[in-house]
Amino acid sequence: MNELLIGYVRSVRGLDVEVELSRDVGQMKFSVGGRTYRVGQIGSYVTIPVLFERLVGIVSEVRMQPIEEIIEGKPVLSDKKVMQLQLVGCISEGEFDRGLKDYPLIGDEVHLARSEDIDIIFAGQKTERAIKIGNFAQTKDTPIWIDVNKMLSRHSAIVGNTGSGKSTTVATLIKTFLGKYEHPHIILFDIHGEYGQIKDKKIKHIRGEELKVPHWLLNFSQWKDLLSIGPTASKQSDNLKTAITELREKNNKDFDKAKLSVDTPIYFPMDELLAHESITKDASLSEKLEVLIKDIRCDNIFKSGYDSTEEIGKFAESIIDKHYSCTILDLSKIVPDMLSSVVEILSRLFYEFAYWNLEKDYPIVLIYEEGHRYLSGEYGNYTSRRRVENIAKEGRKYGVGIILVSQRPSEISETIFSQCNNFIIHRLTTDKDREFIKNLLPENLQGLTNLLPSLGQGEALIAGDAAVLPARAKIDMLEKLPSIDCDFHSKWTDGPETGFNVKSILENWIHQKFEWRKK
Ligand SMILES: Nc1ncnc2c1ncn2[C@@H]1O[C@H](COP(=O)(O)OP(=O)(O)O)[C@@H](O)[C@H]1O
Ligand SMILES: [Mg+2]
């Protein structure tokens, strides 16, 4: 008997194979040639010898199941260990192929994959275009490489529960790109400001209070969102439209009137908007606008310092800065109501630059952290969602890649996800999110979503065009990011005995002291 035999095929449905584990593998662990193999670990590989080749399967589920046996002529139900496999390719003549020529038959032997098999399976992955992202979880010492071109030009998604390792994976990717390439171009939308400590001379950090976005790049829908002008408030909407259109025209006399609309991204001053008669005659609109502008937390937009249309060049160069390869945009100080608009304006900028750069020599990747915050179906996210959907659909042609990062994939626009051809899926426990991801994966990989709740911290299922094969991997941790959670334990152990410093808090709040934002 083959010493690696672990069971027999019980049923075959497409690429789904059910295996009954043999009695002898009771301990689920045994040694062959000095190596210890664990049987049936989810995400591990097995082989099924058929004629001249060995089919390769990946374990997606292991369970106990009552199975009828005939003992002394009588049917008896007994609990058996059953393993579910997804076929992913075959090994023939020492090479791995993702296609299948043969299928297993009921009763075929199922073997543990030897380390030589694993080496053959992953042999093709290390090309000039590939980066190492981690190690195969089954053997721990087999590196997992992914193809950079396929990963970035066909968009990718990194998903998983909070604390499962998404941001660490993003940091690993950034550091690896910066290490491998002379001229990468990476933009990271850092929603929590957690990447501030990554040090590299190629990284430009734009801190929360330094991020300035010209108000005149807001389009009309965004103005309406910011001022909570709903679909029924047509009078307010008309007044605002008149004021903005007239002011864009008045402040840009050379601009071709025939091409000018309320959305044209050209300068007008905020004080003229407040003083415009269409606004002053509308008390409610004027009041809302005033409150918004006086809120210091909106200074990133309303006091950007970009005071003419020509300054758009300065704005663009501050973000797509040729002296750096990666820009980390700390958006943690942007008020939630403005997050969607700011993301949209910045994304628009990157996309337009790629679109109008006819040389096509500046491929850029946009990494959207915490995407559910501004790409979900919520009303206020309309413009950012539409923009990113458009980039996901068209970006490939102009050299704009997307890496979408989220803990709640099911809330994000499906249009964006369906354009992602690569997935790094960390632990994912909610049924709704798992189901959503399952439907995005190719049919032969859908069964693998069963392993998602069991992944450890920093482990992920890697699947898609950029990986040779779907693999459960432990991602390398090249940077330890600071925790964004409040440390209740320490603060409750050592915190101030005197309670809040009421005086200074009120001072900051009422007088809108700038200092608090720097903390
Ligand atoms: N690849 C990894 N290897 C080891 N530890 C990791 C890895 N990824 C994450 N961790 C641990 O898990 C914690 C949470 O990771 P993080 O990347 O912030 O998760 P998420 O972004 O999904 O919330 C990190 O502080 C780190 O200690
Ligand atoms: Mg995170």
Lay out the secondary structure.
Layout: E1 5-13, E2 16-21, E3 29-32, E4 35-38, E5 45-50, E6 53-71, E7 74-92, E8 95-97, E9 109-112, H1 115-122, E10 130-136, E11 143-147, H2 148-153, E12 156-159, H3 166-180, E13 186-190, E14 203-206, H4 220-226, H5 234-250, H6 270-275, H7 277-280, H8 283-294, H9 299-302, H10 312-319, E15 326-330, H11 336-356, E16 364-368, H12 372-375, H13 382-398, E17 400-406, H14 414-418, E18 422-425, H15 431-440, E19 459-464, E20 471-475, H16 488-494, H17 502-510
Parallel strand pairs: 12-17, 12-18, 13-15, 13-16, 14-15, 16-17
Antiparallel strand pairs: 1-2, 1-9, 2-7, 3-4, 5-6, 5-9, 6-7, 7-8, 10-11, 10-20, 18-19, 19-20
Helix pairs in contact: 11-13
The structure holds adenosine-5'-diphosphate (ADP) and magnesium ion.
Adenosine-5'-diphosphate (ADP) binds at residues 160, 162-168, 457-458, 475, 477, 481, 483.
Number of helices: 17
Strands ordered across the widest β-sheet:
11-10-20-19-18-12-17-16-13-15-14
The CATH architecture term of the largest domain is 3-Layer(aba) Sandwich
CATH class identity of the largest domain: Alpha Beta
